[in-house]
Amino acid sequence: MKWGVIGTGNMGEILIDAWMASSVVEQNNLYITNRTIAKAYAIKEHYPEVNVCTQIKDLVQHVDILYICVKPLEIHPLLIDIYDYLTKDQCIVSITSPFSVKKLESIVPCQVARLIPSITNRATAGVTLATFGSSIREEMKSYLLQSCKLYSTPEIIHDDVTRISSDIVSCGPAFFGYLAEKYINTAEQETNITKEQASALTEKMFIGFGKLLEDGHYTLPQLIEKVCVKGGVTGEGIKAMDHSIGELFNNLIHATHNKYEEDIKKIANQLNE
């Protein structure tokens, strides 16, 4: 199979790195392009046999699977531009949440899937959120899922949980990274620890924390119970967090879902719905 990527920004590049690290696709079977073509050539410096296409139509005509890694509102104009070069045997894969597979299928004459990645895929870990169009063939569906398993854990989801699932899987590293950075900065301000030392300790804690969960030693509630000894320091810290956290996560979910609905409406306007 020949794979293509349109859009080699942050997530496009992360996917390519994950594929290369896990041998999902051979370099010479990967075709890439980007609006700023220098970004595509920068990737080729790391993977010399990757094919850079300066024209999108040339890329489309070469590949079996086409990953669309552009912003949501850029997808519809792009699909209109490449429509005449698509065939029914090809499969388009979108990585963005607000553009549903149903909408994709209404535009293109080929098979369709949505595979939402995470930055954790760069470490050949984490989850890929999968949704498939009604016309996708079982062989293609199985091939995509098996490919995802090489660098992540694929999880098939329904449209009604797309946003919250993406919040957890894709946005989660940034959300919890932000909280960790706030904790580090406050630790530096309130105590004698340096930011460098606090950062190093936090990073190692996260690695060990993930390992405990990955190896099945504890669930999240069990882990909290084990550390939170009755009458101990951790318990006091949990009380302080519980008192201060308020509606933080309610507001977070409302914010991401409002943006999601806004993007869906803009996409609907593009499609004259």
From TrEMBL:
It comes from the Bacteria. Belongs to the pyrroline-5-carboxylate reductase family. Residues 164-262 form the Pyrroline-5-carboxylate reductase dimerisation domain. One of its GO terms (molecular function) is pyrroline-5-carboxylate reductase activity. Residues 4-97 form the Pyrroline-5-carboxylate reductase catalytic N-terminal domain. The keyword Ion transport does not apply. Keywords: NADP. GO terms for biological process: L-proline biosynthetic process. The gene is comER. This is Late competence protein ComER. The lineage of its organism: Bacteria, Bacillati, Bacillota, Bacilli, Bacillales. NADP(+) binds at residues 6-11.
